[in-house]
Amino acid sequence: MELTGLGFIGGGNMAEALIKGLIASGLDSQAILAAELMPQRREFLEQTYGIATTADTSEVVAQKKVILLAVKPQALDAALMPLSEVFTDEHCLISILAGVKTTRIEAILGGSPRIVRVMPNTPALIGAGAAALSGGRHARDEDVELARQMFSSVGVAEVVAEKLLDAVTGLSGSGPAYVYSMIEALADGGVLEGLPRDVALNLAAQTLIGAAQMVVQTGEHPAVLRDRVCSPGGTTIAAVETLEQGGLRATLMGAVTRASQRSRELAD
Questions:
Q1: What is the pLDDT of residues 3-31, one digit of tens each?
Q2: Domain with CATH 1.10.3730.10 in the chain
Q3: How is residue 65 annotated by DSSP?
């Protein structure tokens, strides 16, 4: 399926990130229509990105065949129930609602709707997102590929089985919060050792950026890259020993597991 037009139901931050990324990738802004209830938000999207907006979600379904659902999970029924009569097999709905299974959306819309579920994360706002996606029972292969290409415009996107999206939520969905905590802790350590706060924070953030880019660009295992920094009897291996004593790896693994569990709890 070729993306020639796209409708949004909800015009919040994640919708804006995707609008920005798709336009930067070459999609004509005039091909985008976003339904948003807040007048100020509609005006902002129109003026900033040159897209069309409306307060009527039915208008989006009437004009566009590919629709991205970007409302709060608690607003799911209110957003989709009015559309059940006009949503057809020719439409593809891409949902970014955390914890909302494709089967639930299918039940609301009725029939055999083509649904793709995506779990993105907030760095998509700066084009550095990490997303995973899966198709519902009636989604076509081209629907899943189209969604993958869309989210690749604002970062990286992986296709997984839907049962694994809770794990994705625990890893990359919630993951930015873990990294922010690490940056803050590293900066605090620098301040403890006498560095000015702004210098420590800048160095800490750039250290994580650089290390992550090394993993992505070299394709080497993080353990291999870590070993190269750890000289025998040196400062880094002494620091790594402290991390191991403090249970850093076990704590991070536990955080991913707990967030994944909570995602499953919310879905149920």
A1: 778 999 999 998 999 999 889 888 899 99
A2: 175-267
A3: S
